[in-house]
Amino acid sequence: MTSAFFVVLAILIFGLLVGIHELGHFTVAKLFGVRVQEFALGMGPALWKKQGKETLYALRAVPFGGYCMMGEDEASDDPRAFPNQAPWKRALILAAGAFMNFLLGLVIVVILYSGAYAFRTSEIADFMPGCPYESEEGLHKGDRIWKIDGKRIYMSFDVEDFLAQGDGVYDFVVLRDGKKVTLRDFHFVPLEYEGYSQKMYGIYYGYDLATPRTVVQNAWDTCMEFGRWIFMGLSEMLHGKVSMEDVSGPVAIVDIMAETGETAETTGDALYNVFYLAAFIAVNLCIMNLLPLPALDGGRIFLLLVTWLIESVTHKKLDPRYEGYIHAAGMVLLLGLMAVIMFHDIWRLFTK
Fold first, then answer.
1. Which of 209, 238, 263 is the last residue before a domain boundary?
2. How far apart are CA 219 and CA 223, in angstroms?
3. How many domains does the chain have?
4. Distance between CA atoms of residues 307 and 85, nearest Å
5. What positions carry a catalytic annotation?
6. Are 300 and 308 in contact (CB under 8 A)?
7. How far from 200 is each of 132, 192, 231, 259, 277, CA to CA, in Å?
8. Which of 10, 148, 164, 276 is geometrically suited to a Cys-Cys bond with 257, CB 3.0 to 4.6 A?
9. Is 48 a domain residue?
10. Strands 118-127 vs 203-209: parallel, antiparallel or unpaired
11. What pLDDT does 250 receive?
């Protein structure tokens, strides 16, 4: 398939990720009877508009964006207006977009995994002859490694990744006969085994056959793994380990998705890789939107909680315009950052 096909596919997928987010806000708002002024996919000039009974539906020219306008920061006497809803309703409406992003990512992975025959696990199927780690006080056949040094094992490759980060002494938590067993200060290093040139741990891991339950479970674990990668990236960003070279915006994401498809050996592999990346981005959007920063859904939920606490103590209703000013300032900063990232993305396209 041509590069143009994957560029178009990536744009459509990115539009879907944004659209499903806004659809989450819209659906829950409608379920609660909240008045929605406009539901738009895309930003900029309108390519198509239709006035519904009370909501304007629009498809706009720039596919990287969208919004569900509910008058969040406007004082209103309308009992159906967003600011006049109970705090828990507003919180659910705000969180619905991120939830839909996560759900979409999960559904994509379930579909991708539905053709699998089996899934490799962290369950110990057997030990190599002479392996010293099989003992009454140590590991047993059938143990499923659950945690290493407090880090949850979601995917089978987590075991080797976390072992590589350690010093040879670990705290293991294993599932054994339905119970969690802790092995503290467990000495676990690669050893030499007869007939093998490289050192190994001497453990054979098992597989779970693909069933509806294991497909969903592995899809869930994959999304949890995505979340861990994202939080690790945020941690590195806060500690100054990530530079602008490592930050990508919509333009770069589309380019990465297109390149992912182009470099695959077969069309099937290309589509699998592109949609796997799409699932990761969906989970990424979920987490990033829930960060407690102004203009993001997480920031709105955080200020909603603060406002509720203040109003509970003072018994006075705060003017939503003040919260609007905070979000407006945050939006200006966010748009400025997005403009810088987009310029940087375009620059990289022409200089790579």
1. 209
2. 6
3. 2
4. 13
5. 22
6. no
7. 12, 6, 31, 36, 32
8. 10
9. no
10. antiparallel
11. 61
| CA–CA dist 71, 86 (Å, integer) | 15
Q: Tell me, yes or no, whether 7 and 91 share the same domain.
A: yes
Handedness of CA 252, 258, 260, 262 (dihedral sign): negative
Virtual CA dihedral for 215, 220, 224, 226, nearest 10 degrees? Answer: 60
Q: Are residues 161 and 257 in the same domain?
A: no
Same domain, 153 and 94: no
Query: How far, in Å, CA of 75 to CA of 2, rounded?
Result: 51
User: Taken in order 180, 181, 184, 186, is the CA torsion positive or negative?
Assistant: negative
Which domain range does residue 102 map to?
3-33+81-114+253-351
Q: Would you place residue 328 in the very low, low, confident or very high pLDDT band (cuts 50, 70, 90)?
A: low
CA 21 to chain CA centroid, nearest Å: 12
Q: Which two tokens stand for residue 147?
A: 């945690």
Evaluate whether 93 touches 301 at the Cβ level (below 8 Å).
no
Q: Which two tokens stand for residue 232?
A: 């690790």
Q: What is the pTM of this model?
A: 0.84
Helix (H, G, I), strand (E, B) or coil at 322: helix
Nearest to 101 by CA among 193, 230, 217, 260: 230
Whose tokens are 């930003």? That residue is 43
Dump pLDDT digits (tens) for 169-210. 999 999 999 899 999 999 999 999 888 889 999 999 999 999
Q: Is 153 exposed, middle or buried (0-12, 13-18, 19+ CB in 10 A)?
A: buried
Model confidence at 247, in pLDDT bands (50, 70, 90)?
A: low
